[in-house]
Amino acid sequence: MEKPTLLVLGAGPGVGAEVARRFAREGYAVALAARSADRLAGLADEIGGTAHPVDLTDPESLTRVVREVGEAAGHLDVLHFNPSAFRMADPLHLRVEDLLDDLRLGVTPLLTAVQAARPHLRRGARVLVTGSAAAEKPWHEACSLGMQKAALRNLVVSLDATLAPDGIRAVAVQVEGLLADEGPFAPPAVAEALHAAAARPDADWTPHVSYAGPPA
Fold first, then answer.
1. 75-125 pLDDT, tens digit each
2. What are φ and ψ of residue 45, in 5° steps?
3. Is 68 part of a structural domain of the chain?
4. Phi and psi based region of residue 119 (left: phi greater than 0; alpha: psi -120 to 50; beta: remaining)
5. Would you tell me which of 28, 72, 88, 176 could form a disulfide with 212, CB atoms 3.0–4.6 Å apart?
6. Domain limits at 184?
């Protein structure tokens, strides 16, 4: 039986890594993409996946990697978008060029990746995005993050509406707390919430899910 395929974009040591582990336990073949080649190689070895070092802000390189993963597997079943840029700067000190750089990491690679992945996304495939409460409740001292997450949420709604007629769905999971080493906002718990959001049937689908902790 062929394995479904997960591609994680922005596979860092936290949520991205835990999402990879969660889907791997379910039998997915896992491909990991991020800038750090050494970190990717270690994680890929641990879970038995493949590592694809890439600068996510480079549309040509990202397109090439997404197409390579899709062509090698013959399909992509879950595309997980995880990166964001954190910059300490309030609206009076955030430079336009810095905001644009942050959007090039935290938003625009999703558009590039979905366009590149579309030929390999079969019916039932999911576009899964790590969202944040900053989309609705931004911290003014790091306002760029809120703009990234708000734009992501908006883009996901449009992606979902565009892909839904072909049985492909998109969702942003809004994490309603700060990531922590333990507790409901530890990476394994957040990864479980992301997995649950992607596993929903179309009949129950919404392009936005709020995660405030595991059910009581």
1. 999 999 999 999 999 999 999 999 999 999 999 999 999 999 999 999 999
2. -65, -40
3. yes
4. alpha
5. 176
6. 5-211
